[in-house]
Amino acid sequence: MALPQVANAVAVTEGDVVVTTPDGAADCYFAHPASGTAPAVLVWPDIFGLRPAFRQMGKRLAESGYSVLVVNPFYRVKKAPTAEAGPGTPIQEVMPFARALNETTHMTDAKAFIAWLDGQKPVARNRKVGTQGYCMGGPIAFRTAAAVPGRVGAVASFHGGGLVTDAPNSPHLQAAKTKAQFLVAIAENDDQRSPNDKTALKDTFAKANLPAESKCTLAPRHGWCPPDSRVYNEPNAEKAWSRLLALYGKALA
Predict the structure, then answer these.
(1) In this structure, are residues 35 and 11 in contact, taking their beta carbons and an 8 Å threshold?
(2) Where does residue 144 rank: exposed (0-12), middle (13-18), buried (19+ CB within 10 A)?
(3) 130-183 pLDDT, tens digit each
(4) In angstroms, rounded to a whole number, what is the distance separating the alpha carbons of residues 20 and 108?
(5) How far is CA 232 from each of CA 188, 217, 220, 222, 223, rounded to the nearest angstrom?
(6) Contact between residue 51 and residue 95 where contact means Cβ atoms under 8 Å apart
(7) Contact call for residues 162 and 125 (beta carbons, < 8 A)
């Protein structure tokens, strides 16, 4: 499960933290450069939640010069780890956790987490915030931009599910009202199931005059990015990571 090492990595301070939200106390992981300040990034895990793989990804991002908060989106019902076996956990065990979340919880949590980040000394409050989500975290990242539109400058979704719906509060429609820059990486098998989503995303962002990149050729299988995934694909995960760093380097400067 080891990720490739970061070139010219900065020294990092890391640890578990608790963030107070309107609904309780959220257990999270916070990693940041050991000195100075850095742009904040809010990370929304996939349905298997906060676990060692996402701590590793958060630390790696911090080594590239960001103050990173990785959250437990299911803190209302269970502290991390919410999936004892990670991606090996039967999906029916964790699906109820995801179904208990909705637009309201997504947006109230986003506001609370970003407010917490802005209260931390290692965070550069004069720089925009980035947010990234995986699987179910993709639409939450989109809604984070809608919840705090003046603060979020970059949004990335990797094999996100439910970005485009027929509802008037579809995540892609809400996100299009922001001024953020977007990276949307779609797995080929997800594109086969919902071939019109990428077109809806591109059209919506074009009408809103937002810089956005949408690709469906990075990897064939949903879930290719987390290093503990059964379909982890290191070469394509690294391509996605490189594009993420390019997005943040441009949008959070």
Answers:
(1) yes
(2) buried
(3) 999 999 999 999 999 999 999 999 999 999 999 999 999 999 999 999 999 999
(4) 11
(5) 14, 15, 11, 9, 7
(6) no
(7) no
CB-based contact 218:187 (threshold 8 Å): yes
CB 131 within 8 A of CB 113: no
Share of the chain above pLDDT 70, in %: 99
Report the C-alpha gap between 27 and 58 in whole angstroms: 15
Return the sign of the alpha-carbon dihedral for residues 176, 178, 179, 183.
Answer: negative
**Does the model's pTM come out above 0.90?**
yes
Taking the C-alpha atoms of residue 204 and residue 51, their distance in angstroms, rounded to an integer, is 34
156, 130 contact by CB (below 8 A): yes
27-45 pLDDT per residue, tens: 999 999 999 999 999 999 9
**What's the burial of 141, exposed, middle or buried (CB within 10 Å: 0-12/13-18/19+)?**
buried
Distance CA 27, CA 113 (A): 11
* pLDDT of 103 strictly over 70: yes
